[in-house]
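Handout, section B. The chain below has 408 residues.
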Amino acid sequence: MKRMATHRGYRSLGTAFPFKRREFVKLGGAAGVGLLASGRSLLAAQAQQATLPPRPKTNIDEALKVPRTKYSLPGLFPGKVAEVRDEKAMADNVPNRDVIKAMFESGLQALTGKTVDASFPLLFTASDVVGIKVNPVGPGLISTRLELVDAVVDWLARNGIPRKNIVIWDRFDYMLIDAGFTKERYPGCRIEGLQTMDEAAAEGKTQDNSRWLRPDGTHVSTGNFDLDAYYWADVEGPKDLAYLNQHVYNGKYSYFGKLLTQDLTKFINIPVFKNTGNAISMATKNIGYGAVCNTNRLHAPLFLDVCVEVPAFPAVRDKMVLNITDGLRAQYDGGPGPEAKFTYLYNTLFFATDPFALDLVCHNILVEKRKSMGVRVNEHPKYTEYFRYAQKLGLGIGDPAVIQHVRA
């Protein structure tokens, strides 16, 4: 999109989405930038207003005008979700690499109807540059399992993708390292964050911003984002330094990373199985809030709509050819940040080219789990309306009656 000067039981209650910004969450707690200092989320505060403001305008129409490809969402298998489960995957809380690899292969075969290696040419060619979008939040507890990524990397390399053309990525560089996604673990592969962020400055532990702020007042990561490819929404980002540290830009533009727009030709999305209040934080949120900068401004007015509209742009829509939800260890409450007391061994992986069908299946499973654990669940349609919105835009299947849920 070329830039234009102007544009036309105890938790998870209430009508808003309880909210901990994923970008700050670590096992030691959530960092601030002042937005969480009062102990109340922006969304919870908004819920107490007598009337909500009108939905901000966005540039979604620009995305919908771009011609699609054969790989465009919902992908080669619209509405199909494959599930595979093996109780030995996390025996004694230790990931079993061989079992997880077998689960990956079984799930891929269940999705495509072909052998694991015959599945490869359906989605990739040997000339592709392939990204693997992980979720490193809650390292070692609820982050994307290294052993699952091992299986994916091995499959890609075995089928002709040079390891130098395999890129394990997330929005934040330091989170990748914290979660174990290192060059030592994945020799020859690229490990890339879309941006850097100074944790100490974000948490108010230092007044020295020189690690992330240039003398001219711009973020050191500005060059990592494509100013010609963006999600525009009529919502201003805050002007303070703490916000800029985390979000690179403020204003009304959320730019896509150049990694997606200029480098990767395809990518695989590997989120984890967890909640965000009464909604979920899985495939569509992992990419909706992971592919662009300047996102915190969007949480209150457009929270779940972002999970539809950002994936509607070509950098995601035409390149995200496979989604694997990592439910080896899952979390039923307290998300999207890690809360150990709400995690459990689930030993399950889900596969789909259609991220909305995938998320709807997982949403319904998680709702039942939350109920079984005594969580009072708000099942208002607003928590699932975005699935129907995605179907309306032709990005996925949002009707559970049409979804094909198979178990390997």
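Note. The radius of gyration is 20 Å. Compare this with the example in section A.
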